[in-house]
Amino acid sequence: MYTPNQYKNEDIKEIKEFIRQNSFGILVNQVDGKPWATHIPLELDTDENGEDIIISHIAKANPQWQSFSDTSEVLCIFNGPHSYVSSSWYQAEEVPTWNYIAVHVYGTLRIIEEQAVIASMHKLVDKYEQNSECPISIDKLSPKTMRQVKGVVGFQIQITDIQATKKLSQGREEDHPRIIEELEKQDPRAIAVAKAMKIKRTK
Asked: Domain for residue 201, yes or no?
């Protein structure tokens, strides 16, 4: 991912938390010589050695998994808040731009056994059900329902590289108060960018 130096985020603790909070990502690999992408939850976890991994599953009907290889590299894309930034909010004339936060994770993928898939589903469901008024649990689903696990392919990705971009109007600090003020008048994504800018200004 192209990232100018002033936009690079190398705070690994912050990056991991970003992935946890924005884990519905995009898995990209090559299928028959062409890029193939699937939108799925990509959960940050650790393996038996305490190493960071990404774990997930896709439908067997999705041909992407047939090109999975222990040696080829895959890409996981995690997108955060983003927003158009009008140059009318600057003190001096300039072109408009876009502020955004994104993380790319590269790694090697291996298919995992059914029990490991079910264990990962437990974690996934528990994570997203915790704020539900009537949370469900994998433990309480019937054997008939759980037979759907036969229709997915589970995998884990051993991370080889992480590239993180946090483009929040760096270099235009004198314009930050106005940019934040204007972003806070926009949609929820823009408001989230304004919040990220405020946090960065306090560090």
From this structure: no
